[in-house]
Specification:
With 59 residues, this protein is an all-alpha fold. It has one helix at residues 11-56. Helix content is 78%, strand content 0%.
Length: 59
């Protein structure tokens, strides 16, 4: 007797696939957030450093 193949993935398979996709997206967003933080920190540090020099009369 020939088995009929169900073309629709089971609920468990759908859940696992969705979970993997979410984990990949979370990792991508985590890396993006870290890059934004680093750039923001650099900009903030430069701005604060320049303001401190101006107050000290060095510029």
């Amino acid at each position: 007797m020939e088995k009929l193949k169900n073309k629709e993935p089971s609920k468990t398979q759908q859940f696992k696939k969705n979970k993997r996709n979410c984990e990949k997206e979370n990792e991508r967003l985590r890396e993006f957030s870290l890059e934004l933080f680093k750039e923001g920190y650099k900009i903030g540090f430069k701005k604060g450093y320049n303001e401190a020099l101006e107050k000290a009369g060095k510029i």
